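Spend some time on this chain, tokens included, and walk me through the fold:

. . .
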Amino acid sequence: MLLQHLITFCRVVEEGSFTRAAQALNLTQPSVTKQVGALEDYLQVQLFTRQGKRVHLTPVGELVYDYARQVIHLVAQCEEAVREYRSPGSGSVTVGCVHTIGLFTLPDLLAAYVRENPRVKINVKTGNNRETVTMLLHGEVDLGLVTTPMVHERIEVVPLFEDPLVVVAGPSFAANLPPVISNADLAQLPFIGYVRGARFRMTTDQILEEMGIQPTFVMEFDNHEAIKTMVALGFGVALEPFSAVQREVISGKLVRLNVPGLPRHSRTTSLILRRGERRSSAVQAFLALLEQRYQVTIPAR
């Protein structure tokens, strides 16, 4: 069994077909089929079932896929350690995070990190909380930043900061509102929010329901940037994570409204790491930055 056989096998799983895997790996389809066959012969199991042009993992194929990704990750770690040994101060860090963190929290962190570590290559992969956890477990990222509490035997979780939800409006819109806004006042205002069905929309709907408010949504979007733009233009108010609107509030493009009846609700942004794993110098430097920025203690490997 060769490392290339595991790499090819994983690519077939991820592409869902031998043809697309061959294209991605710049190989012929017969070569891909031969490599997967060699892996099956070595392990003496069937890894795939076929349905038309699609392939699906067998139960034992799922098991092999999990281990194969870990092996590939360990080899990559070894290569990274050797590069750092040969060229101190270099290396790479791959960060996985949810989209809001990638937009509003990560840029400042990366800018500070690159100033101190200019020779380190930075990679970022985004997804939802579940996808970020999966990327970490499969070795696709060195560390993750998530917004949902979680417990996993293979993962170390370090809370970094609380991110409260706040009500914001554009300056011109806010100028016509009372300085203190009651729940009844808020219920009369047009809302701009996330599309129905989104996890964040469900959270905001629950909060407004607790306040006895049945909001009228005049606009719905699938990202915070569009929501902020429309709120700044004066089309309505929005319930947003403070991290997403902090810059605009400081610059005066948005106004944080005083709503005493708003329940105290915040999301905890946390760092996640694989438990007990050796960390490269480049990753350790990034963790040191997080410790300094958020005044937390990150457990050693």
Observations:
- The chain has three domains: 3-71, 88-161+268-294, 162-266.
